[in-house]
Each structure stands twice: as C-alpha cells, then as structure tokens.
Write a structure and sequence with these properties.
By secondary structure, this protein is an alpha+beta fold. It has eleven helices and 16 strands.
Length: about 375
Amino acid sequence: MTNTHRRTRVGLALATLLALSTVFTIELSAQHPLVASTATEVDLPDAPTMRGPQQTPRPNSGAQATALPATVTGVVSDIRGALVPGASIKLTAKENSESQTATSDGDGDFTFTGVSPGSYTVIISSPGLQTFRSPVILLRPGQYYELPAIALPIAPASTTVDVVVTQSEVADDQVAAEVQQRILGVIPNFYTSFIWNAAPLNARQKFKISFRSVIDPTVFLGTGLVAAVEQHQNTFPEYGCCFGGYGKRYGAAFSDATIGRILGSAVFPSILRQDPRYFYMGPASSTRQRIKHALLAGLVTRADNGRWRPNYSHILGNASAGAISTLYHPDKYGPGELAGLNAAIGIGGGAFQALFREFVWPRFTTKVPDYATGKPAHAASTAASTP
C-alpha cells in the first residue's frame, strides 16, 4: 500500500470521528441545556445577549412637586420681649378647616412640618396674654415659612388687685426705652410710642420724659440756632445787638421751648389725666386710617383710661406758653392774642409733626424695641382706636 493511499484512509477516519463527535455534542446539549449554555459562554465570551436595554422609568416631577410638604415655624414672646413657653399654636387650613396644633418649647419656638400647600391661619394663645390671629398665609409646595416676630400683649382680663403697681412697672420699662429713641441716632423722638397698647403714664413718668427732653443737648444746640437766626434778622430789635442781644434772644427761645414742653406735656396731662405721647399706628393699618390718625393728633389724645378725648393738654399748654411769653418778649401781641395764636399754631404744627411721626421718622429712629410695631392687625376696633 502506498503512502498516498495510507494518508487518504487516515484523513477519512479523522473526518468520520469529527462528525460523530459533533452529533454526540448536539444530542448531549439537547438533553442537558446547562452544558450547552456553559459551552457557549466559554467558546463565545464576547457574544451579545438576547436581552434588550434596561428601561429606567422617569419620575413624574409635576406630581412629586405638588406633593412636597411645607414647613411653618415661629417664636412667641410677650410685649416686654420675654419668651413664652407652653403657648398653644393652631394652624388651620382655610379651604377645609383642617387644623394642626403645637406647643411652644422653652425658648418660645414652634414648628409645623409636613403641611400641605394651601392657605392657612395661625392662632396663638397663652394664659394671661391676648390671643394672636395671623393674616391668611399662602404656603407653596416645599416652602419654609417663618412667621414674623410675635409679641402677645397682656390680656385685659388678666388684671388683678395689684394692677396699678403692675401697670406702673410696665410703664417705667416703656419710658426707659422711649427716652433712648433718636432720629438718625441724634434727634430725640421721646414722645412717639411705637407700642400701640402702651401702659398709661402716671404724673411722675410724664414729668420724667418732659424734663429729659428739655435738658437734651440737642435742645441747647437748636435754641442756639434759633437765636442766631433771630440775631441775623434783628428779630425783637429791643433786645439789641452783639453778645448781649444774642443772650436775650437765646434766653427767650429757651424759655419758650421749656415752658411749652412742661405745661403741654407734663402739667396739664397730669391734671387732666391725658397722655402726651403720639401713638404710632404702623403699616398694619391702611394709609387712609394712618393719615386720619395723624391729622387728628393735634385735636385728640388718649386719656389715661385708654379712651380718646379732645387734646386739652396740648391746646392749653401752647396757649399758656404764649401768654406767659409776653412777660419777657417785646411783642406787639397782648397775652390773649398771643395765647390764641400759639394754640392755633400748636394744633396745626401738631398735625404736621404727627404725619412725620407716622410715615417718616420711624424709618430713621434707632433703639426701637423689635416688638414695638404699632397697632396690631388683629387689635379689636373698640380697643384704644382713634374715633
């Protein structure tokens, strides 16, 4: 047998073995799928699988944003600035009257979480203090809303047998704060009460503010400027010129201011039991109400019992100061004429000054307590309101 025939037989034998091996593998794969899978993974490691790309669902952003809850927080204090723990706070929805309640902690803080968006009202109450009711609050999804400073006034019903002593102590604290108030930190603004329901003043406190105002350094400076202008214009020529004339004009101007202040802000208010201060109404009231309140300031004032009365103290104080000034002023007017003129000027000047006290000076006055913001929005219309 030649080598060629031998090689041909060997090749046929190998081909027959390969065919039998393939058939055996196919039959084994049909009976044992795991073997086929394993073989495929080993022989074809980079073969793509039959699975499609993974689909990640997108969240519904609009629905989730609408469902985000809001948070409401705040701090409760009284009008003297003391924190009020244990106050009861109620958050009520305007749409469906559903409510949540909370209690202020030892620092006067409270928080509502998980609040659904919508319109709400906050009601705060504490024994011995007036109840606070906020304006309607509109909460947006996910909003963090912090209520403005809340100062609860003392409830009238909480007075006891020692109410006079308590009111006097409260008034002392308020007067001590008022004599620190200055426009631009310089010009006194002692006679503006930024606390609408301020405690009434007794005679001692009325004289204290009066004397404090007439000895303020700005009064001496202002009087000096008035005397200088009169000297330049030769007002009251009977006083003469030079240093002697300036001294007389200075003494007369200082006497006018001192007598008018003490009579109109201390003597007559003590006798007639009227309050010499202007009570700031503030932005919680309408502009029309504030203008009316200011224009009436020269004609009406608050009595010590909280009721509004004709401002006899201011009118009589100006009239009396004008009459007395004829004793040292070489004026052409007699005592009666100058008294009437001063009273009329006092009424008009008081209204003009009150407009500034209401709309201008509060922006520039320093040392005003944070809780002193004028008439509260929830104050009852019958409680110490201008007629």
